[in-house]
Design brief:
about 70 residues, mainly alpha, 3 helices, Exonuc_VII_S, EC 3.1.11.6, Exodeoxyribonuclease 7 small subunit
Length: about 70
């Protein structure tokens, strides 16, 4: 659990997105064991959450900026 929190604070959006793309490619390519596939899937879920947090934060900042301009 702490590892997920650490990833969220240390990875930038682009880093998380790029790693997520790599995870998806590896899963789609196949050739991994079930255990490796599960580990990749779990990492992908963590990375997707990191990306979502960044995007949600960006949306909130944009909304706040637009509200100030009104």
């Amino acid at each position: 659990m702490a590892e997920t929190d650490e990833a969220a604070t240390t990875l930038g959006y682009e880093q998380a997105r790029d790693e997520l793309i790599d995870v998806v490619r590896r899963l789609e390519a196949g050739g991994t064991t079930l255990e490796e596939s599960l580990a990749l899937w779990e990492r992908g879920e963590e990375l997707a959450k990191v990306c979502r947090r960044w995007l949600d934060g960006a949306r909130a900042r944009l909304d706040a900026s637009l509200a100030e301009g009104s």
